[in-house]
Every structure is written in structure tokens, then in C-alpha cells.
Design goal:
5-stranded antiparallel sheet, alpha+beta, 285 residues
Length: 285
């Protein structure tokens, strides 16, 4: 069999021709050396875009964040810009800071219908003198000042109170004297019924509460407290006006209640501590 082989000179001429054609293409192409790679990437992206058009996918909806997580990144409340009208005109007695819990100890009182009727009559008497009173949100006898606790203090604070109050017996207190009070900042005035029987027993309880307050370097109760149940309150300091214009008539209303002389009876079976929105109960024995 005869096989035809090209001569070396023919191969050289053919290779030389390919090199010239290749050189000519490179000379006419002004793009940088990486342009081919970029063109490939662009072509790939276009291809993906076209595929996505034929196969559309819907983005999965994001789950809402829990409120507790959102609050972690919210701005702390600025007491200088707080709208007091949202709280009946009340003004904070201390600056609000995140993680601080307003805390106080008290003797609860569950009102009956006769007591609520009495409060309504008292408010009407004061209203007739041109003053406006707001009913108390709850009725109780305070056994401590309102103090500020850090969140991590609450549990040891409550444990200390429980230990200090463990040995106190139940008692009965009576209240039958109208009186007027203001807070230390003179930003609110209170109309209350003062405890006249059981004062000494309540002082003993306050001593136990004060021991816990001192343990946590907090303010103790007043030296000569007037234990009372607040019935209603007004914004600002109007104590003198209430005493001079209303107190005598208020006492007469109390003494001549339609069901007879009103005697507020407080069955002291348990004490409570409120810290923020948490309430702790301490039964008396």
C-alpha cells in the first residue's frame, strides 16, 4: 500500500499560515486578555437569568421577630419626652431606665360594694368644690416606699422578704379617719382613710421590710408613717385646698354613711410585693 506523506516544507508552510491568521485576529481584537473570561461569565449569568424566567421561584416569607427580641433593639424611653397625658397626668418620681423595676410592699384590700359607694360619694364632695379626683386603680396600705430594683435583684429581694416575714401572725386593722397626703415630689395629692387600730402591728411589719431594704441599700419607710388606704388622687399639690375646703365634709360623709358610721376593716392575712408587673404573695400565719 502506498501512503502519501506531506513534505516537511508543506507542513511548515501550513503552520506558518495558521500563525499569521491567529496573529491577525489578535491584532484586530482590542479587548484586554481577560475579556474572554468575562464574556463567558456574562454568558453564564444571562443563561441563569433565562432559566430563572422559565422557572420562577417565590421568596419564602420571613417569620416575624418576637416582641421580646424587638424590644432588645428599641430605643430606651426618654422621660423628658414622655407624654404624661397617657398616664392621667402623672409624672415619674424617678428616671426610667431599662432593667429597673419599680417595687413596693403593701397590704392589699379587696373592696366591697359599700366601700366603692363611699369612694363615689367622696369624689362627688370634692368635685362640688371645683376639684377633680381620679379613683385609685387598686386599694391597699403601703408598707414601704417605692424603690428601684435591678432585674437580677428581684429574686434574692423576694427571698429576703419571705424569710423576714415568715414569723408574723395575721392581724385586723381598722381605718375610720379621713386624711390628705402628697408624695415627696408634690406631684400628686391623695385622699385616704387612715388606719386607727392596728398601727403598732403594722410598724412591726415595716421593721422587717426595712431590714430587707437596708440589705439591698434601698430607702426605708418613713419614720412616723400614717398608714392609710388611698381612695383617689389628683395631679399636683392641692393638699391645703382639700384640707381647708373638703376634709371636714368628707369626714362627716364617712361618719354619716347611709349604712351607719363607716369602719374600714382590713383583714391582714397576707402581704404582697409588686415589682414591675410581677406580684409576690407572703401569707401571714
Amino acid at each position: 500500500m502506498l501512503v502519501s506523506y506531506s513534505s516537511s516544507s508543506e507542513e511548515d508552510e501550513e503552520n506558518e499560515g495558521r500563525d499569521k491568521r491567529k496573529h491577525k485576529r489578535c491584532k484586530n481584537d482590542d479587548s484586554p486578555p481577560t475579556s474572554k473570561k468575562l464574556r463567558c461569565v456574562t454568558a453564564t449569568q444571562d443563561c441563569c437569568t433565562q432559566m430563572a424566567a422559565f422557572h420562577p421561584t417565590q421568596a419564602k416569607p420571613r417569620l416575624p421577630l418576637p416582641g421580646c427580641v424587638l424590644e432588645m433593639f428599641s430605643e430606651p424611653e426618654d422621660p423628658s419626652t414622655e407624654d404624661s397625658s397617657l398616664h392621667g397626668g402623672r409624672v415619674r418620681s424617678f428616671q426610667h431606665e431599662r432593667g429597673n423595676w419599680a417595687t413596693y410592699v403593701y397590704l392589699p384590700y379587696a373592696p366591697d360594694e359599700g366601700f366603692l359607694d363611699l369612694v363615689g360619694e367622696m369624689v362627688q364632695v370634692v368635685s362640688a368644690r371645683g376639684l377633680s379626683l381620679t379613683w385609685a386603680e387598686e386599694f391597699h396600705v403601703s408598707l414601704s416606699q417605692t424603690v428601684v430594683l435591678r432585674h437580677h435583684w428581684i429574686q434574692p429581694f423576694v427571698l429576703s422578704l419571705r424569710k423576714g416575714l415568715a414569723s408574723y401572725p395575721r392581724m385586723v386593722c381598722l381605718a375610720e379617719k379621713m386624711n390628705v397626703y402628697t408624695n415627696e415630689q408634690k406631684t400628686r395629692t391623695f385622699l385616704g382613710v387612715e388606719v386607727t387600730t392596728g398601727h403598732a402591728q403594722l410598724l412591726e411589719v415595716v421593721r422587717a421590710v426595712d431590714q430587707t431594704m437596708e440589705e439591698f441599700s434601698l430607702s426605708t419607710f418613713y419614720k412616723n408613717p400614717s398608714f392609710h388606704v388611698s381612695l383617689a388622687w389628683s395631679v399636683g399639690d392641692c393638699a391645703d385646698q382639700l384640707r381647708s375646703q373638703c376634709l371636714q365634709e368628707l369626714q362627716a360623709t364617712l361618719d354619716s354613711h347611709e349604712e351607719g358610721s363607716f369602719l374600714l376593716r382590713l383583714a391582714c392575712e397576707e402581704l404582697r410585693c409588686k415589682s414591675g408587673n410581677k406580684v409576690f404573695t407572703f401569707p401571714l400565719h
